[in-house]
Every structure is written in C-alpha cells, then in structure tokens.
Amino acid sequence: MPDGTTPLLLRQDSAAGITRLTLNRPGSRNSLSFAMMGAVLDALRAIAEESSVRVVVLAAAGPVFCAGHDLREITAHRADPDGGRGFFDTAMTRCATLMQAIVALPQPVIAEVQGVATAAGCQLVATCDLAVASDQARFCTPGVDIGLFCSTPAVALSRAVAAKPAMEMLLTGEMIGAAEAQRIGLVNRVVPSADLQPTTESLAARIASRSAHTIRIGKAAFHHQRGLPLETAYAHAAAVMTENLMAEDAAEGIGAFLSKRQPVWRDR
C-alpha cells in the first residue's frame, strides 16, 4: 500500500452485477508494482468465483490510467546480488499471469481509460475485452526510448490491432491520441471526459442484462478460437454453439424472441 493504509485497488459492486476495480496509486501514476499486480490478480481470482458479478470495469484514480511497470522498483532491484534478474523474471511472469487472468476471467472486462496508458498500461488496455476512452486519453509503448523494447506489451497489442500499427507503436514509442487508438482498434469508443464513466457504465449495463451463462460461453470461445487454424476454429465454435443451444437460457431466449416477449434469464 502506498502509505500503509491506502488500498492499492478499490472495489465497488453494483446491484446490476457490475464490479468496478480502480487502480489506486495516482501518486505513482498507477504503475504496476509487484504489489499492485498482486492486488489486481487477487481481485480477479475472487471475481471469477462470484456468479453475482456479470461485468468488470477496470478504471484508475487520478489523471493517468497506468504508466506501466514501476521503474523505480525495477531500478532498486539492480542492487540485488544477481543484478535484479530474479526479480525481473518474477515480475514479468506475474504480469503475464495478470494479463492471462483477464482473458480467462469468465466475465467481460471493460477498460475505462481517462488518461495516459503507457507500456504495460497500454498492454492492460489491449488485454481487456473492451475499452472506452476519454478524448483526452493517450497511448504508447515507449520502451525503445529507454532501451527496453516493449516485448510483453507487444503480445496484447498485436492481438488487439493490426500488425503494422502495432509495430509502429513499438518501434517508435510515439504517443497516439484516443481517436487514432479507436481507428486502429485499440479502443472501442471515445467520448468527452465528462461522459466517460456514464458511457462505460451504460455499456456494462447492456452486457450485464444478457444471460451471464451465454456471455461466459461466448467470451471463452472467442479467445480460444483466435489461436486456432480456420478449420479447427470452426469445429470448436460449432461444438460450443451446440452446447450453448442445449442451455436453458438459449431455449428461453429463442422462445421469447418467437413469442415477442422479454426473456427471463436463469443464467444456466
């Protein structure tokens, strides 16, 4: 914790099943210290087991969304007997585990980006299922500026946007604005700062109103098929759809559509 009492991560739950997680190190630009990554991981692991949570919003306190890894923490570990190698390896592994936990989480995760997202902070945005950004938000992967190529952010970035825009960000380290981030597919929506939270909450509420069982099936299938060859991807998706059709909510949803009424989800 920054001062021994202030939590690194704030959690707020709504009756609609929307959980807001807020990175809470504004004085350190919400950098992903080892402890911060652990706090987010712990929260995600808990949420994964909570059927009452239907959507997660990942936000941040202060003017910066996330400045990436904590470079002061990294530099301090250069004084370790091994020059920091052990800590660097452990920290990068924890970061990879965090990003994969977001992808593996049954519930969709929406990044709400109010300010700058750099390096691993940009990676965090790219990893989330959806992203809504303020028109003041900016993004970059500036590792090349300090002799450190953003190789791990590249994993998420290259899966969120096309190869050439991703490589341009990685090779130049240049900052891009919210409109450009939307154009290349890094974020879904760009809105005025005053509309950021209402827009994110509205999007989250729309998703939360759907069958949670269906959303969980769909998110898992989407991420799984992306790494498969076309024929295998279709075979997997077909099998998933067959199982989905057997679900109670699918029968209810189709029946409601045919009867021109609102469905009543049982989330199973």
TrEMBL record:
CDD domains: crotonase-like
InterPro entries registered for this protein in UniProt: ClpP/crotonase-like_dom_sf (IPR029045), Enoyl-CoA_hydra/iso (IPR001753), Enoyl-CoA_hydra_C (IPR014748), Mitochondrial_ECH-domain (IPR052377)
Keywords assigned by UniProt, alphabetized: Fatty acid metabolism, Lipid metabolism, Transit peptide
Annotated GO MF terms: hydro-lyase activity
A Pfam entry, by short name: ECH_1
GO biological process assignments: fatty acid metabolic process
Purpose: May play a role in fatty acid biosynthesis and insulin sensitivity.
Family membership: Belongs to the enoyl-CoA hydratase/isomerase family.
Identification of the protein by name: Enoyl-CoA hydratase domain-containing protein 3, mitochondrial
